[in-house]
Write a structure and sequence with these properties.
By secondary structure, this protein is of the alpha+beta class. The protein folds into 2 domains: 82 residues, no CATH class; 240 residues, 4-Layer Sandwich (Deoxyribonuclease I, Chain A). The protein contains 11 helices and 12 strands. The strands form 2 sheets. A 6-stranded mixed beta sheet has the order 3-4-2-1-12-11. Strands 5-6-7-8-10-9 form a 6-stranded mixed beta sheet. The longest helix is centred in the C-terminal third of the chain and has 27 residues. It is globular and about 70 Å long. The termini are far apart. Keywords: Endonuclease, Hydrolase, Membrane, Nuclease, Transmembrane, Transmembrane helix. One of its GO terms (molecular function) is endonuclease activity. This is Endonuclease.
């Protein structure tokens, strides 16, 4: 009886291992060509955890079948490190550097998604305490209770498709050129500002790529029509690719080194993340992050869809994701040294 059960478990293990192996191809597969395969990127964290559990199961039984998941996980060690990091620097090291922060504030709880009346004040206090030199905000809403007066420089852009929500770059350092990429037929967008820092001028991109409009709650997901949901996600993946291509083209024309941060609405296993990161950028979480580094409140697994990417020449001193439920996203913070 036990042999029969283990055979069934190994078949399930083989399916999970193959799916994870297939996911390693995702950064190289265009969503425009294979949108259905791109959807798999959203499930990679689950596949990693499932394969780890299968690995532990076979190890306990002292079975050679443990080699299957072990080999697949080893082949995708970069995927595993994108999900969880054992060591990193989340505290200020005391070294001189530039602190940068990104936060999708979900319009400061405008429609009371969270049972709290003090969200704008809570976020304002958080920013005052962390005091980043550059602060990028997504889904900004003009709330009278917010207070970011510590920033003498501000660039906000209300997309023509969203008159109330904006992308904003706050800075302690002056701007030179600034502008917007103006994505068509969507409320999502990318803005940029050339910021004169003490050592150099850098271009900072605040990005908010196309949303999949997926509920973070398991019960709500279960109620959705699976075919309509799948079709919607495939369409948004294609839009994300088009938006990322527009962003990359703009980055390549930049006279300065680029910092890219914000809400990618996609994971570190995706085509768009890989293509943007390939522009001589490094993921600050992968350098100095610790734990899961979750950035989005998703019931199924710890989702990391917000990123701070800096030039490879920069030294990453620290990274932190704050476990604070003031939004459906969690704020992320990093300190870097410009050479």
């Amino acid at each position: 009886m036990r042999k029969a059960i283990n055979k069934i478990i190994f078949v399930m293990n083989s399916i999970a291992a193959f799916a994870l192996l297939l996911s390693y191809l995702l950064p190289y597969v265009s969503p425009k060509m294979f949108p259905l395969l791109s959807v798999l990127s959203l499930a990679v964290p689950v596949l990693i955890v499932v394969n780890v559990l299968f690995l532990l199961y076979w190890i306990v039984l002292l079975s050679k079948r443990s080699m299957l998941s072990l080999i697949v996980l080893a082949l995708g060690i970069s995927h595993v490190s994108s999900l969880y990091k054992l060591r990193g620097k989340s505290m200020d090291t005391g070294e001189t550097g530039i602190s940068i922060m990104s936060y999708n504030v979900h319009s400061f709880n405008r429609f009371n998604w969270i049972d709290s009346k003090t969200i704008p004040q809570d976020i304002s206090n958080l920013i005052k305490i962390q005091n980043p030199d550059i602060f990028c905000v997504q889904e900004f809403y003009n709330n009278p209770d917010i207070d970011f007066k510590q920033y003498p420089y501000k660039y906000d852009y209300f997309n023509h498709n969203s008159k109330e929500l904006a992308l904003v770059i706050f800075s302690k350092y002056p701007f030179m050129k600034k502008g917007s990429l103006n994505f068509e037929k969507t409320a999502n967008n990318v803005i940029f500002a050339d910021i004169v820092m003490p050592r150099d001028t850098v271009r900072v991109y605040n990005i908010h790529l196309q949303s999949h409009r997926i509920s973070s709650k398991t019960n709500d997901l279960a109620k959705e029509d699976s075919q309509k949901l799948l079709k919607r996600i495939q369409v948004s993946f294609k839009q994300q690719q088009q938006q990322s291509e527009q962003l990359i083209s703009h980055m390549r024309s930049s006279p300065y080194k680029n910092i890219v941060m914000g809400d990618f609405n996609n994971t570190a296993y995706s085509y768009v993340y890989d293509k943007i990161k390939s522009e001589n950028l490094q993921d600050t979480f992968k350098k100095e992050g610790k734990g899961f580094g979750k950035t989005f409140k998703f019931e199924l697994f710890p989702a990391r869809i917000d990123f701070i990417l800096v030039p490879k020449e920069f030294e990453v001193l620290s990274f932190k994701s704050f476990d604070l439920e003031f939004s459906d996203h969690y704020p992320i913070y990093s300190k870097v040294k410009i050479p």
